[in-house]
Design a protein that fits this description.
Blueprint lengths: L1 H12 L14 H4 L8 H16 L23 E3 L9 E3 L9 H6 L44 H11 L11 H13 L15 H14 L10 E5 H13 L8 E7 L4 H9 L2 E6 L10 H11 L4 E8 L11 H13 L3 E5 L16 H8 L3 H4 L2 E6 L12 E7 L3 H12 L6 H11 L9 H28 L3 E2 L8 E2 L2 E2 L3 H9 L4 H13 L4 E2 L12 E4 L4 H21 L2
Parallel strand pairs: 4-5, 4-6, 6-7, 7-8
Antiparallel strand pairs: 1-2, 3-9, 8-9, 10-12, 11-14, 13-14
Amino acid sequence: MASSTGDQSQMVKNGLRTKVLTLDSMNPRVQRVEYAVRGPIVQRALELEQELRQVWPRAPCCPPGHTGVAELAPAPLAHATRAEGLGRAQSACLLPSPPLPGCEEAFHRGHPCQHWGRTGYGAEAHHLPAPGEAPALPAAPAHPQPMCPGLSTPSSQVLALCVNPDLLSSPNFPEDAKKRAERILQACGGHSLGAYSVSSGIQLIREDVARYIERRDGGIPADPNNVFLSTGASDAIVTVLKLLVAGEGYTRTGVLIPIPQYPLYSATLAELGAVQVDYYLDEERAWALDVAELHRELCQARDHCRPRALCVINPGNPTGQVQTRECIEAVIRFAFEERLFLLADEVYQDNVYAAGSQFHSFKKVLMEMGPPYAGQQELASFHSTSKGYMGECGFRGGYVEVVNMDAAVQQQMLKLMSVRLCPPVPGQALLDLVVSPPAPTDPSFAQFQAEKQAVLAELAAKAKLTEQVFNEAPGISCNPVQGAMYSFPRVQLPLRAVERAQELGLAPDMFFCLRLLEETGICVVPGSGFGQREGTYHFRMTILPPLEKLRLLLEKLSRFHAKFTLEYS
């Protein structure tokens, strides 16, 4: 001990000292956190973007004030999508509509130009130029278009008025938009989005959320006092998990999560030191949830932890399945019998495409099952402005509704939320616009409805196309994308490729995805980041690129897989 102290004193005298915070001294749970959707693949894609910015900082054809950054797809692909999880639009045409002067000629020469505009959903379909190809420019439309989710024009108008109330006197905004903006501002502290709100969220907006839930669930009552606004759905999910995690050793809380899963769950459980209990979705049955699998995993988990919660993602991320009502009823019975708290991640509830598929909220099914379930089964259900037909993830708007939660625990949840003061107030305002859109009698209704239906119809077409093209490619199979915004195709990898990946210390699908990125510029996230059965390989890819470009991207990916397979056969 004295020697150690002496060594440190000598280092101080020499002008050196050890850091207080090092990898050895930091919280070990943080080091166990992994989050694939912002993991090595995406980081490498961002590095490549930065390299291209340096060698091709501005397209030679750009007129003054028309900025171009070398970043994405070369002609003839003429398409690009942003890396996973980095923004809203996620994908767009390389030319604005209409193109600016000089852009049409540049486009046909293979040097597309682009005004900087709004970004969108992050998607693993980011295309970078291959060696020897001319780089293209970022695909970020100046205004949301039907091929990409985005806030509707009427809602954008209301939000603009809330942010800048001086515009309320402008004749350029419809009267119903002004009334909605004034209603929101009147409910804000100081009549401004810049003021704190109460920690559970603005009361008016909580009431609007409760009315939305009632409409969605066919009139089943929703109490605004059981609704808590949050910084996206993720923040609410983490808060509820914090309430659940307790005990040590064999009494440590276990949480059942689906595999494949959205990595928020595994990352949060690692950070909290909880026990992750995997239950596998059935790929052979379109990623169906099997209650028998829940029973198996629960029984095994009880040997080393105390399972207290069950998470269901519906519609599924990354798998895109939509659970049937019969399945949801079975899950509720299982949770009730096994005394498990239910977490229903329903952020993609507006995204259902497949014929015969329908979204059923856990809250609605639970209430309709009647006693003893309706009055006793504990449930937290989550929704967000980041998905659906709006996709405004940067505003960080969301909510959780709790059902049958102990009143004292509910107060503890509010206390926990109050530590972070309040969710972003602009995000709360945006949430209000999502849950209380224009009514049929409002002048803005027709435009809102048309834009919403266009977005959802486009997503449905892209879901079908993705399934079709992948299933036509040898060695790739893809279940129907029934809902959400992702496909999760399975890829066959040759044994030599698997062995090479092991030599490099990589998961085989990570090796495949890295090669795909380096050789084609297409960025997808490996299935190992979401979990998958041993010996199977997948990747996640969004369905958000524009329809006319999506086929080209899918076909290029399929050709790369064929080339990769031949190389390692």
